[in-house]
Amino acid sequence: MGQIASWCSLLIGPAFIIQAIHDDHRDRPSLQWPKTSGVIMQCQRWYHGGKHSYYNVEVAYTYLVNGRRYTDRKIALWNPDLRGDSDRTHDFVATHPVHSTAEVYYDPEHPENAVLIPGPDEAGNRTSLWGGGGISVATLLLLVLTRKPLANLKATLQSVEAESRTRGPRGSAGLPHGFASYEPACKRKLGVFPDRESLNEVLGQDDGKPLQEWNPEDRVIDAAGHEFRLVQMPGKKSYDLEPTGESWSYERLLEVALADGRLLKRDPGAMRRQMDAVPAEKQMAVLLKVIDGLPTGPRWVIAGFFLFLLLFFLAVMFGFGALFTWLHR
User: CB under 8 Å to 20, separation ≥6 — which residues?
Assistant: First the structure.
């Protein structure tokens, strides 16, 4: 249910964009409507109090088209009663006193449909367009970026609960049911999954949709050191684990972890000292916990990632702006 709600939230941004384009397409033709002289019969301002207070204008005007008299009350197609703040409504009432003349723009095909202010709400539509684009980009990135971390967080909380039941009062915290992924083609070669449930989600065994593509040389190592290769299940996109018959020693996994630590500007000596204090029978599980606690990347990588997000957002909004301008022509 949570995933359904998250993906449904992607509709919010496009809804703003579609609404802005629809309103612009509906109101822009009024700029080409013919105009005639009309007479203001009623024009007064009203205040509506409460939590969301506002002003509006009640107006009535008459006008002639082809010798026939019409009466209308709309000020603009997008805001018929000019609902808004005090200054705007005050200025309108001051410039449209009763019995004064005003230019009336009418639909030539339906003369009874008229306005005093033609055209669309340029500022409002532009705000909806940019806001909808921003919401779309932010929501999509949030869903993509949090899918795997949320799954791992859930699994981590479950593993912590299991640890509290299995370790002694003097034992070291670890991931006795965890797995490490070894991806030699990546700069940072190790990843950690607290238990089989979180690993299965990344492999796509639950829903058939793996969260990443795996290379043939990638391996998975469990807390006992057993090595597995990742094989794609026949006719499916998901992966399964197949034992290779090889084993990883604690020292081998530690060397790769130290290399990752140096990449992330971590002191390898401190990591070694931390692991030296762990009993031999728990070293593998505790090492998985230490690897899992390493940051996601160097600071320059994080800064570059956020710069990419900013540029991506600006590129998307530029595209929406170009589309909006094209529709105006």
Answer: 124, 125, 126, 128, 129, 132, 324
Count: domains in the chain: 2
Sequence letter at residue 232? Q
Kindly provide the b/e burial profile for residues 255-292, where b requires at least 16 CB atoms within 10 angstroms of the residue's own CB.
Answer: ebbbebbeebebeeeebeeebeebeeebbbbbbbbbbb
Res. 277 pLDDT band, cuts 50 70 90:
confident
Q: Is 204 left (phi over 0), alpha (psi -120 to 50) or beta?
A: left
171 and 113 within one domain: no
Tokens describing residue 125: 């539509």
> What pLDDT, on a 0 to 100 scale, did the predictor assign at position 130?
85
Q: What is the pLDDT of residues 109-132, one digit of tens each?
A: 999 999 999 999 998 888 888 888
Q: Above 50 in pLDDT, residue 162?
A: no
Instruction: Give the separation between CA 306 and CA 312, rounded to whole angstroms.
Output: 10
**Full 3-state SS string of 267-288:** CHHHHHHHHHCCCHHHHHHHHH
Beta bridge partners of 107: 110
Residues 79 and 171 in one domain: no
Token code pair at residue 296:
């996601």
Last-in-domain residue among 99, 117, 135:
117
- The range of the structural domain enclosing residue 48 comes to 34-117
The encoded tokens of residue 90 equal: 């005050």
DSSP per residue, 210-270:
-SS---TT-EEEETT-EEEEEEEPTTSS-EEEEEEEEE--HHHHHHHHHHHHHHTT--HHH
Which value, in Å, is the radius of gyration of the alpha carbons in the chain? 33
Closest CA to 225 of 163, 180, 161, 275: 180
Q: What is the pLDDT of residue 319?
A: 60
Per-residue pLDDT band for 9 (boundaries 50, 70, 90) equals low
For residues 87 and 173, membership in a common domain is answered with: no
218-243 pLDDT, tens digit per residue, is: 999 999 999 999 998 888 889 999 99
Written as one letter, the residue type at 324 is F
